[in-house]
Amino acid sequence: MAAEGGGKETNEIKTQFTTREGVYKLLTHSEYSRPNRVPFNSQGSNPVRVSFVNVNDQSGNGDRICFNVGRELYFYIYKGVRKAADLSKPIDKRIYKGTQPTCHDFNPVTATADSVSLLVGFSAGQVQLIDPIKKETSKLFNEERLIDKSRVTCVRWVPGSESLFLVAHSSGSLYLYNVENTCGTTAPHYQLLRQGESYAVHTCKSKTPRNPLLRWTVGEGALNEFAFSPDGKFLACASQDGYLRVFGFDAAELHGTMKSYFGGLLCVCWSPDGRYLVAGGEDDLVTVWSFSDCRVIARGHGHKSWVSVVAFDHCTSSVEEGAELSGSDDDCPEPPSSRDRDHCALAHRNSTDSRPLSVTYRFGSVGQDTQLCLWDLTEDVLFPHLPLSRTRTHTNVMSATSLSTAAQTTAVPAAPAPSAPGVNGKDDGSNSSASGNSASSLCNSLPHSTPTGASPGSNTTTTTTTTTTTTNTSTTKGNSLLDSSFIASGVSKFATLSLHDSRKDRHEKEHKRNHSLGNSRSTDKLLQLGSASRTKPENAKTLGTTLCPRMEDVPLLEPLVCKKIAHERLTVLIFLEDCLVTGCQEGFICTWARPGKVASDRAVEDTLM
Prior knowledge:
With 609 residues, the protein is mostly beta strands. It contains 6 helices and 35 strands. The longest helix is centred in the last third of the chain and has 16 residues, at 520-535. It is globular.
């Protein structure tokens, strides 16, 4: 953990950090940026974003990287920890006029060594489909801005689809496109298809197929990011109104909701097994939300400013020594490494064992405070009804209330919850990740079962009279809103959560942020946000409910690692098999080698010769 004291140490840029696995080291020769390596003046520009894809190149170097800096978009062969980056030879480089790239995403389904499909969203609202290998531009969507005139905030291919993709805008709308359809020459007309609390889904009225196929309006304000569950059946949306909403994508029904402590939510990600989500935003916190229980189970405090990116590490997990596992030792020969032993132990877990296996979820976060934080989500937090483990405490859990107070705090007994997306044994083969990372082999081995009639992290105690939560877990299949030939139908229906208002909360405490940028516009926006949050009555209504528990009502995590790693705000965090990748607003994309994955200095020198 980083020291909170003042002095020179806190402002020093770190080039390595240590976790229980070993030392992560910054590889200076593997830094990607603009060819001139000059720091980009980031004032007023859109965040730097990074996308990866593997093209299954026969040479064994199939990773490709795309990143945007200002008006420029670059496409390189990514050499990772193996060789030094050669910035003089980008595969493709594009400079745009009048607009800036804001986000992008590769389609891993169609990627080959000769062709890749890359979607690029822009600040003026358009979406471009390009092939940076062939250096071709296939199509431009929303060209005349008839569908939406606001900035594109997030774009993603629908998992497993060759032609469908989703686009989010700062208007709060989400559009489903088909690359085979045109956008038409007139503004689309919509017909209401489904409506719920704070969301509506419309279909496009047209005699001939045209884009968009569907329009979602979600919450109030910008829709900052969305993420598909590992099996592609659920969609999590992080909005500027501070709400995280999780939908069944196929049936377009709301599964659950969470509210930030204050301010907007900027980012969201799923755990590899789909059981948990982590969101971050303008409250400087990372919030862990249980998919099956539809409730906040922990918060993490380590950042001094807004959290811009959260991501789970698919490759880091640990198993407690002495855990009861099914299968014999003969079924799993002695592997050479501890990680392989953990993998084998997880794979041989008895699905009917009532005692959950001790698994630690690792996730990371980066923010505008230029800090990288790593967090371990342990059994102490995931299963609070079990005795606290004293043999392994990778994450400090600070209890803000005494045990006696905690014993008096009660909750409604949870109804049998639906299984998390992608964790049913029958669905393991259908899990697909839109990121295209090859490091997801371990995620299928994470806990797949729940004790009968209970959910991970649920606490069955007596009923409280202050706040009640009613969850309908009907398993009747809903009607698909999309053509079954495009997306698998038959997602279970989940009713929206109905929450009763709790007693009014005491006045919110003022929160001081330490911004990494001396940007007056950021400060003005922050002050406006603070005044707006104090005037909105719904903040007092949600605080203290299951939507937004008080700080003392849930465990507070401390970061395992908290290091300043850049001069400007961080906007990129991606975990790969042998490294993790970070990026800052100056346009520098950094590679951090995992312990034991650093290439020798001699090998790096040879690549530079």
